[in-house]
Design brief:
It is built from 14 helices and 19 strands. By secondary structure, it is an alpha+beta fold. It folds into three domains: 125 residues, Methyltransferase, Cobalt-precorrin-4 Transmethylase, Domain 2 (2-Layer Sandwich), CATH 3.30.950; 176 residues, Heat Shock Protein 90 (2-Layer Sandwich), CATH 3.30.565; 58 residues, Winged helix-like DNA-binding domain superfamily/Winged helix DNA-binding domain (Arc Repressor Mutant, subunit A). Strands 10-9-13-14-16-15 form a six-stranded mixed beta sheet, covered by helices on one side. A four-stranded mixed beta sheet has the order 1-2-5-4. A hairpin with a 3-residue loop joins β15 and β16. The longest helix is centred in the first third of the chain and has 15 residues. The protein is elongated and about 100 Å long. It holds the Pfam family HATPase_c_4. This is RNA-binding domain-containing protein. InterPro entries: RecG_C_sf (IPR038475), Schlafen_AlbA_2_dom (IPR007421), Schlafen_AlbA_2_dom_sf (IPR038461), WH-like_DNA-bd_sf (IPR036388), WH_DNA-bd_sf (IPR036390). It comes from Adlercreutzia shanghongiae.
Length: 440
């Protein structure tokens, strides 16, 4: 008897046995002999029954997913010594991991020759992808320490229940009680972001403003839409009947549908941020992830839909953010039915870009911009939020600005000082009592 790829000796039960069980389940299976020295000499066990109980408890409670069905433990005799033989088969729901450590190298082990070793992150991701059938949002998340404050507020606002039962049915948690990538994306710890930028003119030569939206994708969706609304100016024209007609640069339905498509169909396995760019006469939405395999550009225009992220799509549908699958592109086109310029949809192998042209030219004589902040040059979402806060509360402090915008002390102070210099705010008091009001 020799230790090797599929054989391990342990003189007695120890915590290391659990790691080896995990490694065998993740690799090609194997057998652990308890009561045998490292050089293969039978030593025997005082309590073999107790060792079997510990092994099966570990298989069902200490290891996730449960490996009870692929674990067998028996008492065997060798050279007059009583041993315990623990046979572990290769599992079908890899990666298996120690419950207390989670799906990370400290909890996931593989067999390398006669050694049990922590799995690399790339090896863990490969196992996740294999067992999840390449559906990213259904895969187990590498990050398991998640909170859902933003999602809870959003679900509550839309009057949709959000408890453990709903988290399981919506795919936040898998059958083993582990958070999936769906849970990660809707959590406060979501690592994926959206970058927004405003450019001068119709090229990317000169930045006017830029933002990055983070946190739960529900929060990102809300804040990106607010950002776009700030720069979607409303214009008013007086007709021959003396009635005022208000129109926006971009159809609100088109903006909303393009944004929802970006979140629902994005390839979240690519860590790069999605991009939203505002120019003088167009808005671009650039998303990583081309068309889902099996779809063509013609299918897309007809409203045919194959879900890259079925759990995310189902959650957006439950929240009534989308009415039906595959209607986004037709709705965008319908919004431009009578317009001279039409939306463009550019498909590449690894990206997708939606371009919405402006319905109106730059403000001219006879057209008055009535949106209070939207068309103001160099005026961003942070400044707009401060003015909105002042409309409701009268004044604001640096500390309140930090909480409102979720930024730190220094950027908050610089922002308030800049708005004061630009004539938007008046400063009242000094030191700790300093507050700001709208300029008179």
């Amino acid at each position: 008897m020799h230790e090797g790829m599929s054989v391990e000796f342990k003189s007695e039960w120890s915590e290391g046995v659990k790691k080896t069980m995990v490694a065998f389940a993740n690799t090609e299976g194997g057998t652990i002999y308890l009561g045998v020295s490292d050089d293969g000499e039978p030593l025997g066990l005082e309590d073999p029954d107790g060792c079997i109980v510990k092994a099966m408890q570990a298989a069902s409670n200490a290891i996730r997913p449960d490996i009870t069905l692929c674990t067998r433990a028996n008492i065997v005799e060798k050279d007059g010594c009583t041993l315990v033989e623990i046979k572990v088969q290769r599992g079908t729901s890899r990666p298996y991991y120690l419950a207390e450590k989670g799906v990370r190298p400290a909890g996931v082990f593989v067999r390398q020759g006669a050694m049990t070793a922590p799995a690399s992150e790339s090896a863990i991701l490969a196992m996740i992808k294999e067992s999840a059938n390449d559906v990213f949002d259904a895969e187990r998340s590498l990050e398991q320490d998640l909170t859902f404050e933003e999602a809870q507020r959003f679900f509550s606002e839309y009057e949709v229940a959000f408890g453990e039962q709903q988290m399981r049915s919506l795919g936040f948690i898998d059958e083993f009680g582990t958070f999936t990538n769906t849970g990660l994306l809707f959590s406060d710890q979501c690592p994926i972001t959206v970058k927004g930028a405003v450019f001068e003119g119709d090229t990317k030569s000169v930045f006017k403003d830029r933002f990055e939206f983070s946190g739960s994708i529900l929060r990102q969706l809300k804040e990106t839409l607010e950002f776009l609304n700030r720069y979607n100016a409303t214009h008013s024209e007086i007709g021959s009947d003396m009635r005022r007609v208000d129109r926006r640069d971009y159809p609100e339905n088109a903006i909303r549908e393009a944004l929802l498509n970006m979140f629902v169909h994005r390839d979240y396995s690519v860590p790069a941020p999605a991009l939203v760019s505002v120019f003088d006469h167009r808005v671009e939405f650039v998303n990583f992830g081309g068309l889902v395999a099996g779809m063509s550009a013609d299918d897309l225009m007809m409203g045919v839909s194959l879900q890259r992220n079925p759990h995310i799509a189902a959650i957006f549908y439950r929240l009534k953010l989308i009415e039906a699958y595959g209607t986004g592109i037709p709705k965008i086109l319908e919004s431009y039915a009578s317009a001279n310029s039409q939306p463009a949809f550019d498909v590449a192998s690894n990206s997708f870009k939606t371009t919405l042209p402006s319905l109106l030219p730059s403000p001219q004589e006879g057209i008055e911009t009535v949106s209070e902040y939207a068309a103001a040059p160099l005026f961003g979402i942070q400044e707009s939020r401060i003015l909105d806060y002042l409309n409701e509360n009268g004044s604001i402090s640096r500390t309140e600005t930090e909480a409102l915008l979720r930024i730190t002390r220094s950027p908050a102070g610089e922002l308030l000082s800049r708005m004061e210099r630009d004539g938007y705010l008046d400063k009242i008091g000094s030191g700790k009592n300093t507050r700001y009001t709208r300029a008179r």
